[in-house]
Amino acid sequence: MSHVDATVAPAAPANPRSRVILASLIGTSIEFYDFYVYATAAVLVFPILFFPSDNAVAAQLASFAAFGVAFIARPIGSVLFGHFGDRIGRKGTLVASLLTMGIATFIIGVLPTALTPGWQVLAPALLVLMRFCQGIGLGGEWSGAALLATENAPKGKRAIYGTFPQLGAPIGFIIANGVFLLLSLNLSQDDFLNWGWRVPFIASAVLVIIGLYVRLKLVETPAFTKVVERGEVAKLPLARVLKTSWRPLILGTFIMLATYVLFYLMTAFTLSYGTTASSLEAAKEAAIAKGAPLTDAAAAAFVPGLGYSRNDFLVMLIIGCVFFGIFTLVSGPLAERFGRRKTLLFTTVGIIVFGALFVPLFGAGTVGVMTLLIVGFALMGLTFGPMGSVLPELFPTNVRYTGSAISYNVASILGAALAPTIALALLAAGDGSPVLVGLYLSAAAVITLIALFISKETRDIDYEV
What we know:
Elements: H1 3-6, H2 17-44, H3 46-49, H4 56-87, H5 90-110, H6 122-150, H7 158-186, H8 189-196, H9 198-216, H10 222-229, H11 237-244, H12 246-255, H13 257-289, H14 296-300, H15 310-338, H16 340-355, H17 358-362, H18 365-384, H19 387-393, H20 400-417, H21 419-429, H22 435-454
Function: May be a proton symporter involved in the uptake of osmolytes such as proline and glycine betaine.
InterPro entries: MFS_dom (IPR020846), MFS_sugar_transport-like (IPR005828), MFS_trans_sf (IPR036259), Sugar_transporter_CS (IPR005829)
Organism: Conyzicola nivalis
């Protein structure tokens, strides 16, 4: 890959609006689908098949640790793909990131499990390796999709266009969990654990092919084309962004912090907490069927949960995620009218208050849990939607891919990599009460609030500088 590869003829046609929206939306939908398939399996399948243990809590923690590996990989992916995104262009880099994520997800679907003779060590190791590759791919995907949308946006509509790649998150989540739900409804527990869980991973190959077809039809964004024409392409984007834009890197990271904590508490943690009791019973039955019943000590190690069936709680999550999508779209016009900073300030205050409501909502039966999921996902849409424009707007065009990708993905380590594990530990420390988990969310939102107060409004900046 060279500088010459990036050169775009001055007469190159612009990307049609419909193609921009579809390419930015479908790519992130596929990427987040792949990511959520793993997140769901990390709760429902992998503790049993890849990290078997007499102590169910230890198995779940090992699965969450493997889940967190991708967040460590994401900043590496942001530097790698950010370098090429700022050197050779957005289009080719987006194709490479999609392939990286898609191939890793497909391989997970065909891996032997730790229950296969001779694979007790190698199977978990390969799972972690593929999870790392997933993180590499996603580390480069989001920023490129956001730039594809916003660098092609008409004047005064960057925040609106920036919500389309963000909409890929709820769409991917709904598809991933919908597939798991259909499998659960149509397969026995044994069939699901034997082969059914593989279907969502293998099926992702079809989605990747569709995404590649759409993205290969794109031309380079106008903003990057002008950078090439002016001869301002950064030779070392990472060094340049660290030298000239270190302050936006820090602010962008902490502006994104509460968003990540909220999202992974609303997905991985709530699924684990909501289904713990029924998962315990299923684990006992599976162990007995294999002639190795759980010991009393192992059974006692389970942290108390809400006891919903897996299928019922997946339905509740999908309903909540619909509000995620709705409020992601709502956030765009709000961020255009009132500004990105003001919209996020009010939303972050709402997240702080929401964290204090974990105990009363979780303790109010199904109505309370549904209220928690709907409100939490609605806040998620309002905070996640503007990020598609906010983070890229913090950086000049020639380091925009690298800068926004690093901020986004370093925030993923601080806000998401450890969130499910911290939440589980806080739940145990609170004797099964989620009060400390809610306070953890509120504390993260306070940090984001401070970063927003320090930052400046970015709505009216010149995006081609």
